Amino acid sequence: MQFPAIAKLLTLAALAAGSAFAHADSAYPERPIRMIIPYAPGGSLDPIGRVLGEELARRLKQPVVVENVAGANGMLGGNRVAKAAPDGYTLLIGITSNVSLAPLVTPEAQYQASDFDAIGMVGTSGLVLVARPDLPAADMAGVLALARQKPGGLSYGIPGSGSLYHLAMEAIKSDTQTNIVAVPYRGAGQASIDVMGGQIDVALLGLPAMLPHIASQKMKALAVMSKQRDVGDKSIPSASETAGLEGIDYTIWTGVFAPKGTPEPVRQRLHEELQAILRQPEVIENYRKMGVEVAPAQTMAEFAAFIASQTDKLKSDIARTKFNPGS
Questions:
Q1: I need a labelling partner for 169 at 20 to 30 A (CA). Which of 14, 40, 184, 268 fits?
Q2: Which SUPFAM superfamilies match (predicted)?
Q3: Residues 232 and 141 in one domain
């Protein structure tokens, strides 16, 4: 009988294979890494990803090639990473809209948030409702009063149909039973120009980029969408301070993701390097200038749990508001 000998050979082969995989993980990275930014160059996510790419390359001693894969509200880039080999050589800089929200509302998304391994959160940034300078409303309550006086008479701009900005505004409309007409833009730039020029009444946009326009009084800040006032400008009220909007709480989080099934040692290495980068004072200050509050230290499991809870919240909000960006 040769079964014991065969079994021994199979065991040795398995051990050798395991040793080879372990060696590959311990040697990571052995070649350049691609970091996908799922939006166009020049957008708010672009500098966040490029700072991270430079720091990772320096620490990992391998090039990190930052690639913009724009289209379909961030889903083209998400699709590419979700389908990539789970070896740690393709990473995604993801945000709320394209990781958690888009798969829930858009057929073009060929993935779910659970199809990624969560490496770590980079930080959060705020959303602000701004108005044309001559709009006869000084705050969120004033806008809602105007909307009730003229149902369908006000318009709001948003960067992207089906985005977090879109859902947040539809949640406000649902919670207050008001009718404000959505005007989707391909990006925040033209929306901000049009609200300053009076072509639209209000717009929900990223707070950091709007602060200079607010300071110069080219637009009026009405409310931020986070539960608490934003550290970027604590003089701007939270929408949750308005009667009927106590449950409004939306911020944009940014994180690093890998394809599902990436080996744990590789994920752990990336996580540790990310945490080290985010503790550097110059990185914290650089991100703060971009309007990003660096996330506190957390484990990969904690970040994954956060993503799951955020996705569940978005599912609930979509159902409550009957949000359907394609309708």
A1: 40
A2: Periplasmic binding protein-like II
A3: yes
